[in-house]
Write a structure and sequence with these properties.
heterodimer, A: 537 residues, alpha/beta, five-stranded mixed β-sheet, 18 helices, elongated, B: 83 residues, alpha+beta, two-stranded antiparallel sheet, 37% helix, globular
């Protein structure tokens, strides 16, 4: 580097940075103040020519992942810039390791002159030994500012989490932020209705994929699109399609979220320190849970029932959205693995058997002889449950409960609300189309973009119309169905017992069934028998 | 009539190796639903002999119950709410 070479013209980049997150004093560090200071400093430096001015507004100095700094470094690599001027060292960076690497290694190696005006540092001037010592310390102190703020923010957030305050950027689907207290969640009646449906359908034996499909056909907006419709400034880099649809994964996220039971759970993931932005998942034992901080959408019983159902290894065939009756409930007592369902043809008839998967793969691994026919098993399990209900159910209480259940009219109301939402969505879409046309007329967007966006919106409107049609059909079916209540409930009311074995009955009353052999099974119920209570009297 | 202790002993019976002919078939048990619940349970246990191990047709069934406060009524309400 030609240190005392006056003839050499330096091609300089001015670098300016300001960030509230860093605790910058906004006035002394404002962009215009930094600019004035640097420009006046350069007035009597004829050897330096200003090539570019790079500004990072609102970027923390902790990371070097800043657009302007990246552009400047690429200019340096190309050779169009060989001098960097900043107001002080902390403008260039607050990460002492990275800052030190640039100032002490990379810049000298690449022949770049670095000037930090207020710190009195200029790499072109001869440095005394004490100056060499001071720079790393200054970098370290600049770094400490960020560390200090990070510690304060983290501890503040932790106190809030422990108190059960919701500190997420957006309330989760099903809730709004309370208007009185932004840290509290309040039920959003429309979205909560969808959350309840998702849990019910899961208990009824639908697969996550099946639930997603049903929601999409009904035209119910996915959580992301719903946020957009509410006008929230939500953005994500994960979105692949122009309109986000429900998927098995988004249904799963809802089914697994315990916040719906009224328990606040936060701190599921965090970054290791303020310098690393990547977030890591924390073990469940470290999550911060506070019970009863907000109104539940799902009862704890239902949530844990769904949790149990999700833990069971089940699959549905590609063209079927519902689970088979015993999916995930049957275990081979010999190897404790799930049993598989196999239709077996015999003459013109097909018989369905459940058999041990391990034994089918390798006879040496499991010697259980637990093949059992579906019809026989279904009939016997039904019989046992019917006797249990006859013996230990308090029928008057159940009949009162049934009478308190919402009738079909409630379902009609639900559909009405959904249609209303769709209509809102439709007018929003129409409004966007008008705005788009105005933008096109004013020349803000070109014809190509206008046509592309317009067809997007038109497609959206068409989908909304389809969904409204399906919802109207559903409404019509509900009204014209002379039974006021669900078939299963009607049947229960009439027989004072269950009449057939269905997936929700099994899911609610039986945890699992171990098949010991084709003549012996072990049934695990989900409730107490109340036998001993009778005997203690 | 069984004592609570004897009832607990019955839970421990192993279905493997038990002679099916020594077990009562649950289909033969008649339950009078007009009786109050506790009497119904007592009557059921009297007839079935072992409420934890019985048969249903040609199938031997062992019943296992969890240690919980949740009753059958709670579960039925849950079922009826979700259908």
């Amino acid at each position: 580097m030609g240190l005392s070479d006056d003839i050499k013209k330096y091609k300089a980049a001015i670098y300016i940075r300001v960030s509230k997150d860093d605790g910058d004093k906004m006035e002394s560090n404002s962009i215009s103040n930094q600019r004035i200071l640097i420009r006046s400093f350069l007035q009597n430096k004829p050897d330096i020519e200003i090539c570019s001015e790079r500004v990072d507004d609102g970027y923390s100095g902790v990371s070097f992942d800043r657009p302007a700094v990246k552009a400047m470094l690429s200019d340096i690599r190309e050779g169009s810039v060989n001098c960097v001027i900043v107001k002080d060292l902390s403008r260039f960076g607050r990460n002492y390791i990275e800052t030190g690497r640039y100032i002490e290694q990379l810049f000298p190696f690449m022949g770049v002159r670095f000037i930090a005006i207020n710190d009195g540092f200029d790499s072109a001037c001869k440095q005394s030994q004490s100056d060499d010592m001071i720079i790393p310390f200054k970098n370290l102190i600049n770094d400490a500012y960020s560390r200090d703020i990070s510690v304060k923010v983290r501890s503040g957030q932790n106190i809030r989490r422990r108190r059960g305050d919701y500190i997420g950027a957006f309330p989760l689907y099903g809730y709004f932020r309370s208007e009185e207290n932004k840290y509290k969640l309040e039920i959003d009646p429309y979205a909560a209705m969808t959350v309840r449906d998702i849990f019910s359908w899961k208990i009824q034996g639908m697969s996550n994929q099946g639930i997603a499909k049903r929601l999409n056909t009904m035209g119910i907006l996915s959580p992301l699109e719903y946020k957009r419709m509410l006008g929230w400034a939500y953005s994500t880099s994960f979105q692949l399609q122009p309109v986000a649809k429900w998927s098995a994964a988004s249904v799963m996220r809802i089914l697994k979220n315990e916040i719906y039971t009224g328990t606040m759970i936060q701190g599921k993931e965090s970054s290791p320190n303020y310098k690393v932005k990547k977030r890591f998942k924390k073990p469940q034992t470290e999550w911060i849970k506070v019970a009863d901080t907000h109104e539940a959408i799902i009862s704890k019983d239902d949530f844990f029932l769904v949790k149990r159902l999700l833990a069971a290894d089940t699959r549905t065939s590609p063209d079927n959205d519902d689970l088979h009756l015993f999916s995930g409930l049957l275990k081979c007592a010999g190897c404790n693995h799930g049993m598989v369902r196999r239709p077996v043809k015999s003459g013109k008839k097909t018989y369905v058997y459940y058999m041990c998967r391990t034994q089918k793969e390798d006879k040496n691994k499991c010697s259980g002889k637990c093949r059992i026919g579906e019809i026989r098993l279904t009939a016997y399990v039904l019989k046992i449950l019917q006797k249990q209900i006859q013996t230990s159910c308090d029928m008057n209480e159940i009949m009162d409960y049934i009478n308190s259940l919402p009738l079909k009219q409630e379902e009609v109301k639900k559909t009405d609300l959904r249609i209303e939402k769709k209509q809102e969505e439709y007018s929003r879409c129409q409004k966007l189309m008008i705005e788009l046309y105005e933008d096109y007329k004013k020349g803000i967007i070109n014809r190509e973009n206008y046509v592309a966006w317009k067809s997007n919106y038109e497609e959206n409107c068409r989908q909304i119309e389809d969904a409204v049609q399906i919802l109207n059909q559903e409404r019509w079916d509900l009204i014209n169905n002379y039974e006021l209540q669900n078939r299963w409930i009607e049947e229960f009311k009439k027989n004072k017992n269950i009449k057939e074995l269905s997936r929700p009955v099994l899911a609610s009353l039986i945890e699992k069934i171990d098949v010991i052999d084709k003549h012996t099974i072990k049934v695990y119920f989900t409730f107490q028998p109340e036998y001993e209570k009778t005997y203690r009297r | 009539m069984l004592t609570a202790d004897e009832l607990r002993q019955l839970q421990k019976m192993d279905p493997v190796g038990t002679d099916p002919d020594s077990l009562v078939d649950i289909c033969s048990v008649k339950i009078n639903t007009a009786l109050p619940k506790e009497e119904r349970i007592a009557d059921f246990i009297r007839q079935i002999k072992n409420p934890y191990l019985f048969k249903c047709g040609d199938l031997v069934i062992q019943s296992v119950f969890p240690d919980t406060e949740v009753t059958l009524n709670d579960r039925l309400r849950q079922y009826l709410k979700n259908v």
